[in-house]
Amino acid sequence: MNDPFYITTPIYYVNDEPHLGHAYTTVLADVLARYARLRGDDTVFLTGTDEHGQKVERAARERAITPQQQADAMVMRFQETWDRLHISNDDFLRTTQPRHVRVVQSALQALWETGDIYAGVYEGWYCVPDERFWTDKDVVDGLCPDCGRPVERLAEKNYFFRMSAYQDWLVDYIEAHPGFIRPETRRNEVLGFLRQLLGDLCISRPIDRLSWGIALPFDPEYVTYVWFDALLNYVTAALTPSPLPIPVVKGEDWGRGLLESDSRLAALWPHCVHLIGKDILTTHAVYWPTMLHALGLPQPRMIFAHGWWNVEGIKMSKSLGNVVKPLDLADIYGVDAFRYFLMREMTPGRDASFNLDLIASRYRSDLANDLGNLLSRLVTMIGRYCGGQVPTPDAETDVDAALRTKAETVIGPTLEAVEALLVNDALALAIELVREINRYLETTAPWLRAKAGETARVATILYTAAEALRLASVLLNPVMPERMTVLQRSLGLGEHPQQREDLVWGMLQPGNAVVTGEPLFPRDIEAAR
Ligand code: ME8
Q: Which of 95, 193, 236, 351 might form a disulfide with 103, Cβ 3.0–4.6 angstroms?
């Protein structure tokens, strides 16, 4: 039995629409989920929205609507975008859902009971117009680093999570679990951060300054501040759906009790993989593990922080007007080509720079020329020389065996690259197989054999090429699910969820009627769409 696979994206703020960066993380999670399903793992893929807090409250005020209306409108934009981008999430969590509010409140109460949450004084530089606290380090000459207006010293009662108590434990844990924070550079970054003394974490705001949040169960004059609420979403979604209240027990007994009583949580949680951008590494690799530990829950299997997408080398930002909208690109190149581009172009641990030429050249070379053209040549030749039916292969020669071996031996390394979260490498391997099939056709020249009347030889060549292409399409399916389904349909295969057995040589049935259709990746993109 395979281990289950529980993959999460960050839950995105609903103050603005999804852009290229959000699309990247979500497509990567989707691709990993689809590969896991191909492996036969019991897979749960979670994404969602982070709806409480100042950012959303302020965005709503600017649009003269309520925070709930703001959240509802943006959630639609996220869900529409994910639907268009073929995102196969099993769950979509909104932090305003009652199922989540009950988890947050009972977790807060559990930590309050043990003193892991306590009342204290929060002091800092406050920017009144921005409604935001800054530290000594942030403030420049008494001015807000964001808006440049004067800040004032403010002290107010708030609630804190005793994060400092878990610093030594966290360092030991990270050191003992090399695969916990990935890639290695991010792990080192977290260990470096933990060399300074860890403070406690302010987890509340008084409701007269922020009302859009989950009320503290032990002080209704306060709401919990975003991260305590947001991070717990991963636990909420792993629980068996239930309308019953979560029993309030102290500290670590909270998580232990849940694990004992909820078999879904117990099965999923230890296999959880959090996919995040590097911007939220500290919250996930420092706040979250200490919160989980205090609550008596084990750690997720892995926190993977990918790099940053810039646009032509510059940070994407609204004020620079260079925000890339994923659906605009999907409209031009097609959804799957856009997904392919995102996955092929970024090495997950590093930053990447977007530019339009890059996507156009990937499209032309890998997709239109290598892959799309191969399918159309093959289908045309099967039509012309084999009566439109996948031929029955005759005796295999060395050159056929070489292609079969190449196809069979590329499967292992491709899946291993995916397990290491190097989807870009996996794609490079799959496309290399496609190129090998093109070279094979050049070498074996079935059109010359056909002219010479060598029917059996033509049958073997076209079967071998088509079967190798089918295998490549199974490997590429998690990245381009819709286009690869079309490809398989062209080879006369029925639509079905891809399974491990599809990765075995010889699954293409002779006799299947091939289908000539529109090009898989039209060369003249503008004209075709
Ligand atoms: O931080 N390049 O939400 P958020 C790559 N609500 N990825 C990017 C990116 C870019 N330029 N811009 C955004 C939050 N992302 C919190 C998370 S989780 C418990 C709470 C992606 O809407 C990347 O995954 O600001 C990043 O971590 C995330 O969007 C931040 O989304």
A: 236
